[in-house]
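Q: I'm building a small set of examples for a reading group on sequence design. Run inverse folding on the following structure and report the sequence directly after it, with nothing in between.
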């Protein structure tokens, strides 16, 4: 298929009102083609909390028009002559929240890229949407028909994982997998997951798959308790329903991954759940920053407060292997791509149980009707 046989079209945010369900369908200009790129015909794309932050310019001014979506699954339809990772036309691949890093191209060695931690590349990290590639092109995400991306950031998906389930793993999944792995989640560890949304539900399943002794979900109400237990959680704390929850559970956890993105979250109470030398990993990213931190809980228990950014292509491959080995099954509802505006409104209202995956209907593609 020649490059001109297909159009890059998608749901475009034109201003901050897009986050209220006002994205408009339209054409966009993908990055100028390079021979290290692939083009992907998108079949699926998950909806991530970050899509909403970006659509509403929550993290700073968004470069509109912006097509969000960074949990992309599709079929490779074009492969550049310099693509080195063996991708071929017809391969089923996934693209997560990052689509470029410097990969040492800026001359001197980049420690992050050289060690397989492209997500921490300080000089060339380009987001899959709302970013600018090293060649000057804008990045557009996966609420769309096609995606053009440097092949290094397109990962082959194991046959065992259905596309609708692979999609949310590419950001929501790896964002919880990577810190749990990095901070030693496994036998002998008690792990807390705060916020049972898209990221949180993956966190529970990865912690169990990695062999943690105990997984505790911290949620606002008991509404998701049955689900959490079904996902493999051992205990459940409903913070709005027990005013003594922090004291009762103090010092019981080794690692916490916090997916909450509210500025008014009870951060110090969450941290009090850690025991000596415990690690608190913040992955949720509130528009207006974190609450104030008090020093003594950190000092008295030698706690570590840290963050974590998505995962590298290598992390994504490793996560897929674990998902296949341990039969990790995300809770996903498929939603037609045409209903993306409705779906983001439902997402904002906290409706997903626990991720929505947008699906392109093949016949609509063929008729050019999407
Ligand atoms: P989500 O599905 O909406 O889940 C967030 C969960 O947080 C909710 O399900 C809810 O859980 C809890 N929550 C919401 N409002 C709260 C409040 N006011 N106080 C306490 N808890 C609250 O969103 P997501 O897709 O998982 O994304 C979560 C955050 O992670 C977003 O900020 C997103 O941008 C960020 N993120 C970061 C990275 C990274 O690399 N660090 C990557 C992807 C996403 P309960 O109902 O259980 O309370
Ligand atoms: Zn994301």
């Amino acid at each position: 298929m020649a490059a001109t046989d297909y159009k890059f079209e998608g749901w475009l945010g034109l201003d901050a009102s897009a986050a209220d369900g006002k994205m408009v369908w339209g054409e966009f200009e993908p990055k100028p083609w390079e021979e290290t790129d692939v083009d992907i015909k998108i079949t699926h794309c998950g909806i991530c909390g970050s899509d909403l932050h970006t659509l509403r310019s929550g993290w700073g001014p968004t470069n509109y028009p912006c097509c969000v979506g960074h949990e992309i699954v599709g079929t490779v339809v074009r492969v550049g002559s310099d693509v080195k990772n063996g991708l071929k036309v017809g391969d089923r691949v996934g693209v997560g929240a990052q689509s470029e890093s410097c990969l040492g191209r800026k001359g001197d060695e980049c420690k992050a890229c050289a060690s397989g931690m492209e997500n921490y590349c300080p000089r060339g990290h380009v987001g899959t949407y709302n970013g600018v590639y090293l060649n000057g092109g804008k990045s557009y995400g996966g609420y769309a028909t096609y995606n053009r991306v440097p092949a290094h950031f397109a990962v082959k998906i194991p046959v065992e994982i259905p596309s609708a389930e692979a999609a949310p793993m590419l950001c929501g999944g790896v964002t919880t997998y990577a810190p749990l792995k990095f901070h030693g989640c496994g036998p002998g560890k008690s792990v807390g997951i705060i916020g049972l949304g898209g990221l949180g539900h993956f966190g529970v399943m990865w912690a169990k798959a990695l062999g943690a002794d105990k997984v505790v979900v911290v949620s606002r109400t008991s509404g998701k308790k049955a689900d959490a237990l079904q996902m493999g959680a051992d205990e459940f704390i409903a913070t709005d329903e027990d005013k003594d929850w922090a004291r009762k559970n103090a010092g019981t956890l080794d690692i916490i991954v916090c997916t909450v993105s509210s500025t008014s979250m009870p951060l110090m109470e969450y941290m009090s759940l850690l025991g000596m030398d415990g690690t608190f990993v913040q992955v949720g990213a509130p528009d207006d920053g974190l609450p104030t931190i008090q020093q003594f809980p950190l000092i008295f228990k030698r706690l570590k407060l840290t963050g974590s950014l998505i995962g590298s292509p290598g992390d994504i491959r490793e996560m897929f292997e674990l998902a296949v080995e341990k039969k990790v099954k995300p809770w996903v509802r498929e939603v037609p791509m045409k209903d993306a505006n409705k779906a983001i409104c439902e997402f904002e209202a906290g409706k997903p149980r626990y991720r929505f995956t947008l699906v392109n209907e093949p016949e609509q593609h063929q008729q050019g009707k999407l």
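The pocket of zinc ion (ligand 2) is lined by residues 48, 50, 70, 97, 171 (CB under 6 Å).
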